[in-house]
Amino acid sequence: MKKLMNEVGHYVDQMLDGMVLAHPELRRLPGTTVLVRAEKADKVALVSGGGSGHEPAHGGFVGPGMLDAAVAGEMFTSPTPDQILEAIRAVHGDQGVLLIVKNYTGDVMNFEMAAEMATMEGIHVEQVVVDDDVAVQNSTHTIGRRGIAGTVFVHKIAGAAAEAGYPLETVAAVAKRAIDNVHSMGVALSPCTVPASGQPSFQLADDEIEIGIGIHGEPGVRREPIRSADDVVDTLLDTILEDAAVQAGDDVAVLVNGLGATPLSELYIANRRIARRLAKQGVNIQQTRVAEYMTSLEMAGFSISLLKLDHELAKLLNAPATTTAWRS
Amino acid sequence: MKKLMNEVGHYVDQMLDGMVLAHPELRRLPGTTVLVRAEKADKVALVSGGGSGHEPAHGGFVGPGMLDAAVAGEMFTSPTPDQILEAIRAVHGDQGVLLIVKNYTGDVMNFEMAAEMATMEGIHVEQVVVDDDVAVQNSTHTIGRRGIAGTVFVHKIAGAAAEAGYPLETVAAVAKRAIDNVHSMGVALSPCTVPASGQPSFQLADDEIEIGIGIHGEPGVRREPIRSADDVVDTLLDTILEDAAVQAGDDVAVLVNGLGATPLSELYIANRRIARRLAKQGVNIQQTRVAEYMTSLEMAGFSISLLKLDHELAKLLNAPATTTAWRS
C-alpha cells in the first residue's frame, strides 16, 4: 500500500485540518469531524455526510447554495449519531434542518438516531434518503438501492431551494423530487485500498472490469472483459435510461463522476459517447458536469448520473453556488 | 493497460469532443486540436498548450479571466506549429497575442516557429516560457528547468492582466514576473501509461517514491523509500523555499496539484503540513488551491507550487475567472 499519509489513525483528522487550512470559508467544529460554513445563514439548514474516502464529498459541497454542514465518518464508515447531532446543533436556526442521507444501512440508522435526538431538543428535522444507483436492488451494507454520486445533484437542488427561502417541508419535497428523478450507475477498472486494512478492497484481473460497482467497492452486477469506452458507456447508459424513463424532448443534467484514478481525459471520452447517445434520442442536455465529485479513494472507474429536469429543478440546479467542489 | 478509451489513435480527438460537448462555453476550431472561448474578447489574447495527458491543462483554463485558446498535442507530445498558428489566428485581435509556453524543448521550438509565422502575417506576438520546476536543472527533453503546475498561476495572472486591458508588453511583463516568483516540485508514487505505448513510463518498487518527477515521468532527483506525508512534503518544500527565497512576512499563494491518481484526501493531508510549515515561518498564505490542475494521466503523486505575491500579482490572482477548471 502506497499512500501519501501519516499515521493511519490520523488520516481523516489531518485531511479535515488540511481542508479548512486551504479553504477559510470552511470551519471545523472543534473536537468533531464536522465542517460548516464559516458564516451561518438564515434559512433552512442542510446537513449531509457519510464515510470518508469519497472526497470532495461531502465537505467540498459546504457553502452558499449547497450544504451548511458535512459530517465525516471514518474511512468508508458511517459518521456516528453524536457527530451528526453536533452538526445539526451548529447549523440549525428557526427554520429547521434537512438531512440528506445516502442509502447505506449504517448511514440511515445513524442519521435517524441523530434526528431523533435533535427532535427531543426541540429542533425541527426532516430527512431524505438518496438511492440513485440503478445497478443493484440490494447489496452489501444496503437494503434497497445505494446512494452514489447523484447525491451531489440533490445537495445542489435542495441547497438552492433553501437559499431561495423555501420552508423546510418544501425543501424536503423538492429534494425528494430530485431523488426520484436521478439515476446513476458506475464501473470500476481497479480497486481501492482502505488505509487501515492495507489490502485492495477486491481483485480484478488485468482485463476485467466490474460493472455496477458501489463507491466502497461493493460488488456490482457482473465482471466483464475490458472493452471500449463507448461500449462501457452504453452498458451503463442503457440500464440508466431504462430505469429513468427518459424520453425524447426531456431535459436532463448529466454528471460524469471520476472514482479517483481515472484521468479527466477518459471521463471526457466517456462524455462524448453519453452526449451523442442522448442527442440521438432527442434528449436535451441542459448541463454537464465532468469531474471527481464522489470518489472511492484511488479506485479507477467512473459513474454516470442522469437527472431528469422539470422547470423548477432546472432553475434550482442553475442557481448560484459557491463551494470548493461545485460552482455555478 | 486498462484505459477507458476507444481506438488509441482517437484518444485526443475524442477527449476534445467530449470536452466541448460538456462545456458549450468552449469551441473547437474545426479540423484542429485547438479549444477557444465560444465568444471572442476584445483584449490581448492568450494562447497556451502542450502535450495531452495533463488535463485539465490546458483546455480547462480557457475562458473569461484566463486563456483564449489552448492547443493540444498528441499524448505527451508538443503541439505542431501549424496547430499553434491556427490558435493564434483564431483569437488575435488588434492588441496582439501572448503565448504561454512550458519549458520543454519541443514546446519552445514549436511555439517559437508558430510565433514567427504569425509575425510574418502581421500579428503581434510575444512569448513567455514557464520554468517553475526547481527539482532539476536540465532533464530529458528539456534544457533548463521544466515547466510544470506553476504554469496555471501564470495563466491566471496573465489572464487577469489581459482582461484588465493591459497592453501586450505589460501583460508579458506581468507574466514574466509571475514566472520569476513561482517555484514548484513534485513527487511520484506510481508511474503512468501512455496509451500508445501500453507500458508504464517507469518502474517503482512497492516501497519507493520518485522525488522531483516531471509531468511526463521524466526522472527526478532521486528515488527514496516511501515515508510519511509530512516527510515527503518537507523534502519538496525545503527545496522550494530555498529556491524561492520566501521570508517571514511574505505573501504567497499555494497550489497543491494532484498528478492523477492521488485521492483529494491525501492532497489535503499534504496541505495541512504545507500550511503549518509556512505559518511557522511567518509566511502569509493568501490563497490555497488543492485539486488536479496539471496531471500525468493516472500517475499517483503530487506537486507543490509556491507563488510569491506582490500587491499587483495578488490583485490579479484574485480577479474573477470563469473556466471549467479554475474559478475565482
What report would you give on this structure?
2 copies of one chain form a homodimer. Chain A has 2 domains: 10-180, Rossmann fold (3-Layer(aba) Sandwich); 182-317, Hypothetical Protein Tm841, Chain: A,domain 3 (2-Layer Sandwich), CATH 3.30.1180. Chain A contains 8 helices and 12 strands. Chain A has helices spanning 11-22, 81-91, 105-120, 151-163, 168-180, 229-244, 264-280, 311-318; strands at 26-28, 34-37, 45-52, 69-75, 97-102, 125-130, 182-188, 208-211, 222-225, 251-258, 284-291, 301-309. In chain A, the strands form 2 sheets. A 6-stranded mixed beta sheet of chain A has the order 1-2-4-3-5-6, with helices on both faces. Chain A has a 6-stranded mixed beta sheet with strand order 9-8-7-12-10-11. In chain A, strand 1 and strand 2 (34-37) form a beta hairpin. Chain A is globular and about 55 Å long.
Inertia-based shape of chain A: globular
Whole-Å distance between the termini of chain A? 37 Å
Q: How many strand segments of chain A? A: 12
- What's the number of helices of chain A? 8
What is the averaged pLDDT score of chain A?
Answer: 96
Largest interface: A-B, 60 and 61 residues
Which architecture of the largest domain in chain A would the CATH scheme give at its second level?
Answer: 3-Layer(aba) Sandwich
Our Rg estimate of chain A from Cα atoms comes to 19 Å
Q: Percentage of helical residues of chain A?
A: 25-40%
Q: Strand portion of chain A, in percent?
A: 15-25%
Based on the structure, what is the oligomeric state of the protein chains? homodimer
Structural class of chain A: alpha/beta
| CATH topology (fold) name of the largest domain in chain A | Rossmann fold
Order of helices and strands of chain A: HEEEEHEHEHHEEEHEHEEH
> Sheet bearing the most strands of chain A, described?
6 strands, mixed
Task: Give the strand order of the largest sheet of chain A, numbering strands 1, 2, ... along the chain.
Answer: 1-2-4-3-5-6
